[in-house]
């Protein structure tokens, strides 16, 4: 392997210009034939991601889903040792090599910081549960039961299924878990916890990582009085939103599918103290050069999400805007979503966008698996890479990997196992990377892989797409290059264009002092015509459809079905 010792962008705000790529380590490349992806496997794929030539994908940074020591009840999101690599993925020495090899290619690395909770096998929790007077008892959230029936301390539900409290018979108290009972919540009111997590952050920054993705950062802190959350149904009832028939229907439905009581998460998320935790983290990041962070903050109100940038840009560097994942396939739905976020963001706050990740149905399948899926995937790629903000590509998105439909016996995600067939869980978007048409799609030599490779791998893989100049992979590759060359795409302002635009097209302008671009996206299955009436003339730089007229300077834009184009105003 030849290393191209290119210089990294040394500016502190490199992450504003970067294209990120999310890797789910279990599924990327298995080097030792055990059916599970690993760090040496990932190292062998770095050239695919960026070898410094125009042939590779060309990404600038990787976010790794967790590869720390874990019993895998939630597949790495239950960490048993924050400062070591799970043996299935490799060793700390492998990690150091991964970091060095990535950096030598100009690729930065950010890690998943999962610190709302630990694994129940983390030594902190093992100690904490050992006795009521253990020094680490208060590192987690322990409470007595309520009333004669020893009911759970309050009505909080966890985010997967059931109540958020587990009974510990040995010490006679409940502990809080916002996800599985194997994922006890840390007590962020305890200064020792904050110190210990600070040490974890420093441990990785000392080793040279470039930042963190913060798992469920909006739920770290809890109501000091642990009050009951209000019931959603009762709330609706009070405002007259439900009649008796509605109530009966909902109650029966919930009983039939044993659905949890719906509640407004008033007291177990977005507590003001969380902002102080994030400020403390930020002070640590800022004591190292060029570190970044991106938050997984979930809220209905965009103002609430935006508040996590900090009043002084002193909390998160970036925040995912998950509303984008919920847009319908309508130009207006995407436009309104982005416009609202742009309007809400405080000055200087930098957006981060993603269309797929390890928790949701892959975007290419979310909008329907049919003959036009790939055209739609190109349109989404053009949007993702031309919006104002940092794009995150989910592994396999660049080749249009589909959501796999797995039978129940193959499922691993506890969410899918519990809710099947209502919800197949998150395994369908986590299947192994499809490298080629060989055994297990080139992912592994194992007789069986941890999740099956999606059945379509023979026609949908990297090898085929690298060889086809018109493939989705090559479209991503060109787009990433173009993004790097056009300052208006990385630094320019964003403004949507509404006048004279057909309602099934989404158009916007990206502009710096001396460069202006127009992006036109046709979400309809029919041809659409847009008249350009602005100053100068327009030149198409890239289109989602391969046979676009290279030198088209005409003021009338004819977009094919699902076609998107990027124009330079000359
Ligand atoms: C985040 C992760 C998800 C995980 C959960 C609990 O939402 O993205 O995969 O299950 O946190 O850690």
Could you characterize the architecture of this molecule?
The chain has three domains: 14-119 and 192-224 and 266-481, Glycosidases (TIM Barrel, Alpha-Beta Barrel); 120-185, Alpha-Beta Complex (Oligo-1,6-glucosidase, domain 2), CATH 3.90.400.10; 491-569, Golgi alpha-mannosidase II (Immunoglobulin-like), CATH 2.60.40.1180. An eight-stranded parallel β-barrel has the order 1-2-5-9-10-11-12-13. The protein has a five-stranded antiparallel β-sheet with strand order 14-15-16-20-18. Strands 6-8-7 form a three-stranded antiparallel β-sheet, with no helix packed on it. The chain has 570 residues and is α/β, with parallel strands linked by helices. 26% of the residues lie in helices and 16% in strands. The model is unreliable at 1-5 (pLDDT under 50). It binds alpha-D-glucopyranose (GLC). The site of alpha-D-glucopyranose has 9 residues, from loops.
Summarize the entry for a quick read.
The chain is of the alpha/beta class. The chain has helices at 14-17, 39-43, 46-49, 92-104, 123-128, 191-207, 232-238, 244-256, 273-286, 302-306, 331-344, 363-366, 373-384, 414-419, 462-467, 472-485, 487-491, and strands at residues 20-23, 61-64, 68-69, 81-85, 108-113, 142-143, 165-168, 173-176, 211-214, 292-295, 318-320, 350-354, 390-394, 493-497, 505-512, 515-522, 528-531, 538-543, 556-559, 564-569. It folds into three domains: 14-119 and 192-224 and 266-481, TIM Barrel, CATH 3.20.20.80; 120-185, Oligo-1,6-glucosidase, domain 2; 491-569, Golgi alpha-mannosidase II (Immunoglobulin-like).
